[in-house]
Amino acid sequence: MSDESETLHLHVSVGDITIEVDGPVDDAETWFEALREDYLADVDPETVANAATAESNSNPSGESDGNPNGHQAQSSEKSKSLQEFYKLANDPTKRDSALIVGWYLEYHEDQDNFTKPEIEERATDAKISLGANVSRDLSNQVKDSYLEKVDERDGQDAYHLTLSGEDYVEEELLSQSE
Question: Does residue 73 carry a pLDDT above 70?
């Protein structure tokens, strides 16, 4: 049984969805469950629970974080877009542009691997121009040990970054970003 004066602040972000409720414990839990069912029904309940636990552990005292309305600031939770990372690379080669897009797919869109059409589609969406022969550029990245061919999907080679590729993107191309 909870004390009526006890309040609860729940803030859970999973992917692009953020659910935030604030109020008396019983009401907040009810609101959260309704919102979770509406917006996070496709997400594994354990993932939601882990996200909720991580959020509550980040401010265990329950004290205000200095924001006048009592809500956590959202800007610190946002990540850079592909285009923002690309701009940090300071005029990369077309070949390196494909590598940056692949890195973004792996590390910011949580793909295990990626194909040439996925690179081209995501680059087009972000208004990033790639070389005329993306297949050759990816093959050259494999030769340089920045990419590894790991699979085939829909008749296309699938790649992922190697540790050397990660280092090259993060330390050489995007060194200003983080």
Answer: no
The pTM of this model reads 0.56
Distance of CA 120 to the CA centre of its chain: 19
By CB neighbour count within 10 A (0-12 exposed, 13-18 middle, 19+ buried), where does 90 fall? exposed
Residues 161 and 169 sit within 8 Å (Cβ to Cβ)? yes
DSSP-derived secondary structure letter, 30: H
| Residue found under tokens 């191309």 | 173
| Rg for the chain, CA atoms, rounded | 21
d(CA 39, CA 93): 40
Distance CA 145, CA 81 (A): 26
Query: What burial class does residue 129 get, using C-beta atoms within 10 Å of its C-beta: 0-12 exposed, 13-18 middle, 19+ buried?
Result: exposed
pLDDT above 70 as % of the chain: 63
Residues 6+ apart with CB under 8 A from 157: 115, 116, 138, 149, 151
Q: How is residue 155 written in tokens?
A: 């008749």
Exposure on the CB side of residue 5, measured as CA atoms within 13 A: 0
Predicted confidence (pLDDT) at residue 157 exceeds the cutoff of 60: yes
Closest by Cα among 126, 156, 137 to 147:
137
Q: Quick one: how many helices (H) and strands (E) in the chain?
A: 7, 5
Both structure tokens of 170: 């993060």
